[in-house]
From TrEMBL:
Signal peptide limits: none
Official protein name in the record: long-chain-fatty-acid--CoA ligase
EC number(s) recorded for this UniProt protein: 6.2.1.3
GO MF term set: long-chain fatty acid-CoA ligase activity
Keyword hit for Zinc: no
Residues in AMP-dependent synthetase/ligase domain copies: 111-534
PROSITE patterns per UniProt: AMP_BINDING
Species assigned in the record: Rotaria socialis
One cellular component term from this protein's GO annotations in UniProt: endoplasmic reticulum
Length: 580
């Protein structure tokens, strides 16, 4: 991730831009100093040609936290006085859905209606443009994979678990769709789990089939065969290197594990079609194992209702900036609920998902080729992006630094007015190269997983020409439970509760935190909160109380304007500064 904005690629472009645009920008700087309000409305007229974001003329925001009394805490309403959502809602045409199976069909219909059915994108290599699988083709691939799994002995329904041990890819998502189509439950695996955790997960869920992409992970599973007696087959989602093919097949035969390719699986399913077996809202779609800090991972049981209610919540927050033409870059691990929830939301709205090439060091190339409009992020990436921009700006001469600072001042004017838009002068001639490193079309950057430094957040809001918001969540609530509102100029907080859940603060007397003082353990209750940990009632009781509140272990405070601020960790497992 350290080279998202690489010095060698970034620096000359910015310096050239500043030099070429210098004369025009110098005049503009004087104009802006005297007529800031007028120039702040000077926009590029042709947004499609210039790939600019449209000004949405934001009104000033008022964010309040309505509270009611509680024996141990205060419980604010979610957003305004609307009831909490329990179903999904398309951001495009207001249709509702109760399962992701239904949501995907709505997304497919939206894509068909707009005449652009692109769904899942990938690159063959760094020099190639994105190639696309349509919504109909993704549906067909998932149908074939699901039919093949049933032909191989897997069953419809909630007693079947399918392992996915690959990086983000078309095959990852079509395998997940296949499980959705037949009410199966998928179980993501990832490299950092370690062998003991992988053995634990396979045995706890009795996995018989695992989809794998890397030859080293195939060999790892074969090596562990004696410890995981339920494992019967491995589906290769990528072609094996010729020097590994014979070795892997022979070793798999020795331990009675069947090796099939994804193509062979689809061919089997095409010849043995099986009707879909749609899920219900309370059916599980995934067991998502959390790595935790000690001991073996816990498997969070997530249902269709858990994830689709977040689609309604996201519609409440992001509808002003989204159309049916959005594109997301997928590079954060799909094995984690944060990225999964975002991508499932995108598919329910007919958006396009472009998968990175597999190497985060080459992410800049993927961004330039894809030109996404939505970019999920984590603070580590944004911190390094900020550092690289600063490293590029520091050696510039005083005139160029003056232009850059004038651009920031002009953009600050908009941020203070609760709006984000692109300027004809500053974005085109000073900030354009920075924005092009993200593809040039990003409308929204959502940061999660850890706190983002307020100065960095403020800086990125100005230079990226996009809304940059922070959210908060845990695997146990499908990755997201609070988010900053678009246009909210404040920093240092995780926003307000989404309208699918309530938040309360509970007393932590051992640490002298009391809810009456608007500070305490952050607790979440709503349709996005998980059912519990798979086959682990003790851990479930530790996380969920008798009233259904999820106790996160994070200590939070209500700030006067209604947002939530994380201030401590109940168990002191780590310091916040270490997660960035």
């Amino acid at each position: 991730m350290d080279r998202l904005v690489s010095d060698e690629n970034f620096s000359p472009s910015l310096q050239t831009t500043l030099a070429v645009g210098g004369a025009l920008a110098l005049v503009a700087a004087a104009v802006i100093h005297r007529h800031k309000d007028k120039l702040s409305s000077l926009l590029v007229e042709d947004f499609a040609t210039e790939e600019m974001n449209q000004d949405t003329n934001w009104q000033r925001l008022t964010i309040s936290a309505q509270a009611q009394g509680c024996a141990e805490a205060r419980i604010p309403a979610s957003i305004g006085s609307r009831p909490l959502s329990t179903i999904g809602k398309s951001i495009i045409d207001d249709r509702t859905f109760a399962t992701f199976y239904e949501g995907f069909q709505i997304g497919k219909a939206i894509a068909t209606r707009r005449g652009d059915e692109r769904c899942l994108g990938y690159r063959v290599d760094r020099q190639s443009p994105y190639q696309w699988v349509s919504y109909e083709e993704a549906d067909q691939a998932a149908t074939e994979v699901g039919s093949a799994l049933i032909e191989l002995g897997e069953n419809h329904g909630q007693n079947t678990f399918i392992g996915i041990y690959t990086i983000n890819s078309v095959e990852w998502m079509t395998t997940a769709l296949a499980c959705h189509f037949h009410s199966m439950i998928y179980v993501p695996l990832y490299d950092t789990l370690g062998e003991p955790a992988i053995v634990h997960i396979i045995n706890q869920t009795s996995l018989k089939t695992i989809f794998v992409d890397k030859p080293e992970n195939v060999l790892c599973l074969i090596k562990l065969a004696s410890q995981v007696p339920t494992l019967k087959r491995i589906i290769l989602t990528k072609q094996l290197p010729s020097d590994k093919n014979t070795e892997i097949i022979n070793k798999a035969k020795e331990v009675a594990i069947e090796i099939m390719t994804y193509t062979q699986l689809r061919d089997l399913g095409r010849s043995k079609p099986v009707a879909h077996h749609p899920p219900t809202p309370d059916d599980m779609f995934e067991i998502c194992y959390t790595s935790g800090t000690t001991g073996l991972p816990k498997g969070a049981m997530l249902t269709h209702k858990n994830v689709v209610c977040l689609a309604q919540a996201a519609t409440e927050v992001f509808s002003p900036v989204f159309t049916e033409l959005e594109t997301i870059i997928s590079y954060l691990p799909l094995a984690h609920s944060y990225e999964q929830t975002i991508e499932l939301y995108c598919l329910c709205n007919g958006f396009k998902i472009g998968y990175f090439s597999g190497d985060v060091r080459q992410l800049a190339d993927d961004l330039a080729a894809l030109k996404p409009t939505l970019m999920p992020c984590v603070p580590r990436l944004l911190n390094r992006m900020y550092d690289n921009i600063q490293a590029t700006i520091r050696p510039l001469n005083s005139f160029k630094r003056f232009l850059f600072n004038q651009a920031l001042a002009a953009k600050s004017h908009d941020v203070e007015k609760h709006r984000i838009k692109r300027h004809m002068i500053w974005d085109r001639f000073v900030l354009k190269r920075i924005q092009q490193r993200l593809g040039g079309r990003v409308k929204l950057i959502v940061s999660g997983a850890a706190p983002l430094s307020p100065p960095i957040l403020e800086f990125l809001k100005r230079v990226c020409g996009a809304y940059v918001v922070e959210g908060y969540g845990q695997t146990e609530c499908c990755g997201i439970s609070t988010c900053q509102m678009l246009g909210d100029p404040t920093t240092g907080n995780i926003g307000v509760p989404l309208n699918c859940n309530m938040i309360k603060l509970a007393d932590v007397p051992d640490m002298q935190y009391f809810a009456k003082d608007n500070v305490g353990e952050l607790c979440i209750k709503g349709a996005n909160v998980f059912k519990g940990y798979f086959n682990d009632e003790e851990k479930t009781r530790e996380a969920l109380d008798s009233e259904g509140w999820l106790h996160t272990g994070d200590v939070a405070r209500w700030v006067p304007t209604g947002q939530i601020q994380i201030v401590d960790r109940k168990k002191h497992m780590f310091k916040l500064s270490q997660v960035c």
